[in-house]
UniProtKB/TrEMBL annotation:
Protein name: RAB3A interacting protein (rabin3)
Signal peptide range: none
Gene Ontology molecular-function annotations: guanyl-nucleotide exchange factor activity
Example of a GO biological process term: exocytosis
Organism, as annotated: Seriola lalandi dorsalis
Keywords linked to the UniProt accession: Coiled coil
A Pfam family the protein falls into: RAB3A-like_C
TM stretches of this protein: none
Coiled coil in keyword set: yes
A GO term from the CC aspect: Golgi to plasma membrane transport vesicle
Family: Belongs to the SEC2 family.
Keyword Coiled coil in annotation: yes
Length: 162
């Protein structure tokens, strides 16, 4: 009941300010844990880019790399995740805004990032008045579904094809 009350209060005057009760709870319980990586500076940069809607996630085309630059090693590679530092096959990479630097991410890290992105996309749609459902309860349950996805992601569950 408290979650629904916080959501309804937020829906009356939607804001993307994380200090409101509803978003503060989601950040604390879902977003921060989802975007906490061993490379904490990169994790913070990802959160900022997601909030600003400037993060790109794209599949990696496995073409042979002609030359490995020093910066490419810092950014991970097709076999090393830039966020976890683990040796994993990275099928996706991320990029911040107009930057030319790419960071390779494992399926596990990619799922955590996209779960948070999906939540922000829906919240932005509500904030912009693009969600046409008038029923606050339907919107609330959609938000709860997105929170569930973040919970699964932070626990390590992800789809193999991601």
């Amino acid at each position: 009941i408290q979650l629904f009350s916080e959501f309804k209060a937020w829906k009356e005057e939607p804001t993307l300010d994380r200090s409101c009760c509803f978003l503060e709870r989601v950040y604390r319980e879902d977003i921060y844990p989802c975007l906490t990586f061993s490379k904490s500076e990169l994790g913070s940069a990802i959160l900022e880019a997601v909030e600003q809607n400037t993060l790109s996630v794209e599949p990696v085309g496995f073409q042979p790399l002609p030359v490995v630059k020093a910066s490419a090693v810092e950014c991970g590679g097709p076999k090393k995740c830039a966020l976890s530092g683990q040796t994993k096959t990275c099928k996706h990479r991320i990029k911040f805004g107009d930057s030319s630097n790419y960071y390779y991410v494992s399926p596990y890290c990619r799922y955590r990032i996209t779960a948070v992105c999906n939540f922000f996309t829906y919240i932005r749609y509500i904030h912009q008045g693009l969600v046409k459902q008038q029923d606050a309860e339907q919107m609330f349950w959609e938000v709860m579904q997105l929170r569930r996805e973040m919970s699964f992601a932070k626990l390590g569950y992800y789809k193999d094809q991601l």
